[in-house]
Specification:
Helix content of chain A: 10-25%
CATH topology of chain A: Thiol Ester Dehydrase, Chain A
Number of helices of chain A: 3
Largest interface: A-B, 14 and 13 residues
Order of helices and strands of chain A: EHHEEEEEH
Oligomer: homotetramer
Low-confidence stretches of chain A: none
Radius of gyration of chain A: 16 Å
Number of strands of chain A: 6
CATH class of chain A: Alpha Beta
């Protein structure tokens, strides 16, 4: 499925149905659901082939340090949403990933936010500097908009 | 149940068990779960008798505009957590509620964050100024630390 | 998406992605997830145009009385599943809907089960006899395999 | 917390709050929630000291093969529920665990059901006969009502 124009800047976009069970007692999508969508987009990003291969080879992995979400519009069932993920900042051991949720019914961004991710060395059991190959792979995925 | 010292400043504290099913494939509590805990604490706050009565009388209600969460430590099963909610800012039509999650196992704050809440007039179908009685009720609950 | 042969008998089939977050600490899809999939298929069935129209006109609705699920194989991430729903029994006020979950990765039925649904009259606040038009609509959807 | 009389026969009883977020768009507790409660009670049962010790020593574990739930009454927020678990049948490699959910608000059983559990040998990667020590431990927990 092609991405809506609002997600044109996002190298990774996933598309998910809104489920009836995503609604809460207010009759719209519960606030935890976009957080789950962000998670799915985050995982899709780090599962892109080159990044997945590097994380595996380096025996490091992402740990979620913080999340933020703006609920811009009420989301209702039925609908289909597209969720974009892109990396906008590479720090020493952490990075910022931005998310936008686009609703097919509303033809608009209905939520956005960001994840702060720490790269963790499982052997050493502590955060570790993001390697140069990982920086290069993410910069390539982001089409040069990302400062390595 | 008495609150831990770290939550002494919070007028509303709820205590919940960590469920086995709160864990994800990493074997610790999934990132959506503290967001659900924040929701439960938020609801407990607005269900305190005076605030619940005012919201009902004024035919207004809270809508979640934004959420942020810092995952400070991995949370594991089994555990029992206490979640505090307090209002730290009253704007025109919006307010900020701060949350902290205290783990009984770790004897520490394991997550914190905040909710931005808009007061919504259901009849007019739009945000509305927080009424003076609501401001007074929240200031009273916060023991005078809150600017009305 | 065309249905797999194992779901050929099902008039309603929905297709959903398995999410990373559907996994639990055992590293496979949690047992509550197929129950959520059954719900989504059940809703899709009663939202087929003719049935939705009749339920609305008669001011009646389905209430879930019982559910059963057989977990035939472990379901893992990533995968895409197709869930079928068909009505196999029409009682006085209740009906039985059968579900099967087909995994694209495993090319096999990974779970099946059934829902017992009671038709509820909201005005009278009690179960009500399934109307003849509803029986006819369901029998039509089921291609004559269903005893009216 | 003492168990209600309706759960007197259950050797394991857990007590959980109904969360606001457990509700769905119908304004009552969603059908997946009692399934999660059953899971929590099931885990509590197999975590009783003697059984947990035996499972660990024998390097075997429980796998859920089937679940069934009867939704006897609508469950609403707020409420506190107690969930009982007891083993009623020991087969060769499988056992049946029965669950009842008692509501404090309604002073009644609001849901019941059962889990079919298979004992799995992780080394051999297949179901295995329930050992005599496990049979004895469960029979002891069930106070002799259970055929070893």
């Amino acid at each position: 499925m092609s991405s809506p124009a609002d997600l044109a800047d996002f190298p990774v976009v996933i598309t998910l149905p809104v489920l009836w069970g995503d609604q809460d007692a207010f009759g719209h999508v519960n606030n935890t659901v976009p957080i789950r969508w962000f998670e799915s987009a985050r995982i899709a990003y780090i599962e892109t082939p080159e990044i997945a291969e590097l994380l595996k080879r380096e025996k490091v992995g992402p740990i979620l340090a913080a999340i933020a979400c703006n609920y811009r519009r009420q989301i209702t069932y039925p609908d289909t949403v597209s969720i974009g993920a892109r990396v906008t900042r590479l720090g020493g051991a952490s990075l910022t990933m931005v998310h936008k949720v686009w609703s097919e019914q509303q033809r608009a961004i209905v939520a956005d936010g960001e994840s702060t991710i720490v790269i963790f060395d499982y052997a050493a059991q502590r955060p570790t500097r993001i390697s140069d190959p990982l920086r290069t792979a993410m910069a390539k995925l982001e089409g040069g908009r990302l400062e390595r």
